[in-house]
Specification:
Elements (H helix, E strand, L loop, with lengths): L5 H7 L9 E5 L5 E7 L6 E8 L4 E6 L11 H9 L5 E2 L4 E2 L5 E6 L2 E6 L5 E4 L5 E6 L5 E6 L2 E6 L5 E5 L6 E3 L4 H6 L6 E3 L5 E8 L5 E4 L10 E4 L9 E8 L4 E4 L8 E6 L6 E6 L5 E7 L6 E8 L12 E2 L5 E7 L2 E6 L2 E2 L6 E8 L3 E6 L6 E5 L5 E3 L6 E7 L2 E7 L7 E6 L2 E5 L14 E5 L4 E6 L10 E5 L18 H8 L3 E6 L8 H5 L5 H19 L3 E11 L1 H12 L6 E5 L10 H8 L6 H6 L13 E6 L8 H12 L5 E5 L9 H19 L7
Parallel strand pairs: 3-5, 39-40, 39-41, 41-42, 42-43, 43-44
Antiparallel strand pairs: 1-2, 2-3, 3-4, 6-7, 7-8, 8-9, 10-11, 11-12, 12-13, 14-16, 15-16, 16-19, 17-18, 19-20, 21-22, 22-23, 23-24, 25-26, 26-27, 27-28, 29-30, 30-31, 31-32, 33-34, 34-35, 35-36, 37-38, 38-40
Helix pairs in contact: 1-11
Length: about 700
């Protein structure tokens, strides 16, 4: 049977993510592991699995096929959009501490699975459930339905409401948009270690501007209203209360007027309820210890930075001996601390903390093209657990670590279960092998040693000059140039059509230290564009076959912003651009992101003006293709529509491809496949490249 062409295969496999084991949880004693996996590399329906570490054996716990589940609630659909969930079936689950049970929502239905015997039972939720979580002891399940926080007793099935309000703009137990989209806090309720109380977020969206998303393809469908905290406007009012199952309630007051962002919450056995809160300008954070019964708070630590403070996943937490585990920037390194003592050395940049037990497992990098898994002992000794170059991630508890590794030599990721550093098993993966192999050349570009990759047709030096296609993201929190074949598959496909594809990570991207990240402060567009131009010229000096008279650039989200501003500001360098889902004016994006990098629009108006594509529309003199999902609730289509209007008013021809029913993601198979083909066609026509050059 003939293999699919790459665009079809990528679309069918949802970017080669289907069939992979994922979403790992490890029991507190390391005895078992839970995870999700679909049955094939093109099967979008995830099932719940358990792995017994002692027996090195996996068991299917719950297969959702055939379950008539109905559509998920709006709250659950929003949660999935924030997590960029592309799969179906069981897409998330909440385990208890010992991993004996797990709760999950399936459409309008609610289930609890026994991870030991593999049996499942269905509960009767009060409404379409979202984010169900068992208490640590496994006796009860909390979930959200119709913006109210419920608890159902597994012994008897009694369901009760812990918190609810009549106001449709107020919810209990959910993460607000800013928390989920920008702070990666996806949950809004946390059980106490004894399972008798819940710390629950109360979110009041009444102050947040109301925006509307319509369905232009069906004028009979009413527009959907969403609360969107546009830069410079009001955020949701977030409060936290400790709700007792006995009906008690303690409201916490951490001065939310000065610290409106509730960034992290943790509640470990033997330790206080712990909060990380952040000021609106993001220059100050506080770690607070809370006495759950009374609400009394103790300031544990306060940090300041003249630009902003980064929020790191997995902290704050506590060691068993009572020392605080957190991260802080010292010099030009984001370091791991136990209390006030730095544990990790200068130059090792912390990405995230995976687990805090007797030891601390974390992910960090010395070189931004790699990420490795480390373990720090209570005495401060640091051990690297992964050796092979590449990108490594982990889940861990006790003496068990689940390592997922993507390396330059592997066509698909591998997942290994280790116990005390010894491999126990490799979990089966059903992911498809790509029909092509990426062969990037990684190098350092220019005086700033920008991490860059060049991809050529077939991975070979061409016999004639090639047009150049830049493919950056170029912004915060995402590195494109990594030691992974999978990262460059799409670039290899474009290269095989007759391009030399250049990917470069400039200032603002992660992994090179706080100073590198903060170099874009208040001057985002100038800095990121300068680095792409420098990377192009450095690549041209190194590789003599780059045709600088035919240079295009394409990108999505921040990369779309960068692509559009490249042809607007530097038409002598860039001759065509494809801009997907771009933020065309940071005043149209959200508070937490825009105000971190551009400041407050009322106080830093010039910084916003300098990064507005709309302000520069009249400069366009090169072919520009704009692409945007009409249903995008993250980067609203108003961004591209306002730019398109400004271009039209300035008499500047351009192309606009609206994607009906598409959000900021593009999981739809037909959309994913045809977007690649249409971009290729546009770039060939814009640069005058005949099809025979492929």
């Amino acid at each position: 049977m003939r293999a699919d062409p790459f665009p079809r295969q990528k679309a069918r496999t949802r970017g080669f993510t289907l069939g992979l084991p994922r979403s790992f949880a490890v029991a507190a004693d390391g005895s078992r592991i839970a995870f999700l996996r679909s049955a094939a590399g093109d099967d979008p329906v995830n099932a719940l699995w358990a792995f017994d570490v002692a027996e090195a054996r996996e068991r299917l716990v719950f297969d959702p096929r055939g379950a008539d589940a109905g559509d998920p609630s709006d709250q659950e659909r929003n949660r999935r959009e924030r997590t960029r969930e592309k799969a179906e079936g069981v897409v998330a689950y909440g385990p208890d501490l010992d991993l004996r049970s797990a709760a999950f929502a399936l459409g309008k239905r609610l289930f609890v699975a026994d991870l030991v015997d593999g049996k499942s039972r269905e509960l009767a939720p009060a409404g379409p459930p979202s984010d169900p979580r068992p208490d640590p002891t496994g006796r009860r399940v909390a979930y959200v339905a119709d913006r109210a926080l419920h608890v159902v007793d597994l012994d008897g099935g009694a369901d009760r409401v812990l918190a609810e309000e009549d106001d449709p703009a107020v919810s209990w137990g959910l993460a607000e948009f800013i928390a989920a989209e920008e702070m990666h806090r996806f949950r809004g309720h946390w059980w106490s270690p004894d399972g008798e109380r819940i710390a629950a977020a109360r979110v009041d969206e009444n102050p947040v501007p109301e925006w509307h998303i319509s369905s232009p393809v069906d004028p009979t469908v009413p527009s959907r209203s969403v609360r969107y905290p546009q830069a410079g406007t009001s955020n949701a009012l977030v409060a936290l209360s400790v709700l007792g199952l006995d009906g008690s309630r303690v409201d916490l007051d951490w001065d939310p007027e000065s610290f409106p962002y509730l960034a992290r919450v943790s509640w470990q056995a033997g330790h206080p309820l712990t909060l990380l809160v952040q000021s609106r300008d993001q220059r100050t954070t506080r770690i607070l210890a809370v006495e759950g019964a009374t609400g009394a708070m103790t300031l544990v630590r306060e940090d300041h930075d003249p630009e902003w403070l980064e929020i790191v996943d997995g902290v704050p937490r506590w060691l068993p001996d009572g020392r605080l585990v957190f991260t802080a920037d010292q010099g030009d390194t984001r370091r791991l601390f136990f209390d006030d003592e730095p544990v990790t050395p200068p130059g090792l940049q912390i990405h995230r903390v995976v687990d805090v037990g007797q030891d601390v497992v974390f992910v960090a990098s010395e070189e931004p093209t790699e990420a490795h898994v480390f373990r720090a002992s209570p005495g401060g000794e640091v051990e690297r657990l992964t050796r092979e170059p590449g990108m490594h991630a982990a889940a861990a508890s006790a003496d068990v670590v689940v390592l997922t590794s993507i390396t330059p030599a592997a066509a698909t990721p591998t997942t290994t279960v280790t116990k005390n550093g010894v491999s126990v098993a490799t979990l089966v993966s059903f992911a498809e092998r790509p029909v092509l192999a990426a062969r990037p050349t990684l190098f350092h570009a220019g005086p700033r040693e920008l991490r860059a990759a060049l991809i050529t047709p077939g991975g070979r030096d061409p016999e004639r000059p090639l047009p150049v296609l830049l493919h950056p993201y170029g912004g915060p929190h995402a590195a494109m140039v990594v030691k992974s074949e999978l990262a460059f598959l799409e670039d290899q496909w474009f290269a095989d059509q007759g391009f030399a594809v250049l990917v470069a990570d400039g200032r603002g991207t992660p992994g090179r230290g706080p100073a590198w990240e903060r170099a874009i402060s208040r001057n985002v567009a100038d800095v990121v564009l300068e680095d792409q131009v420098d990377a192009l010229h450095a690549a041209a000096r190194r590789f003599g076959f780059l045709d600088l008279s035919r240079v295009a650039i394409r990108g999505w989200s921040f990369g779309g912003f960068l692509a559009a501003i490249a042809v607007l500001r530097r038409p002598e360098v860039f001759h065509a651009a494809v801009a997907g889902a771009p933020v065309t004016d940071p005043r149209l994006y959200d508070t937490h992101y825009s105000e971190r990098y551009w400041g407050h629009p009322y106080h830093d108006a010039e910084a916003y003006r300098r990064s507005s594509l709309i302000e520069e529309a009249a400069k366009l003199e090169r072919p520009l293709l704009l692409i945007h999902g009409i249903a995008d609730d993250n980067v609203f289509v108003a961004n591209t529509l306002q730019l398109s209007r400004a271009l039209m008013e300035a008499g500047r021809p351009h192309s606009f491809l609206p994607l009906s029913g598409v959000t900021h993601m593009t999981p739809q198979e037909q959309v994913t496949e045809n977007l690649l083909l249409l971009q290729l066609q546009f770039l060939r026509e814009a640069l005058g490249i005949p099809d025979s050059d492929a």
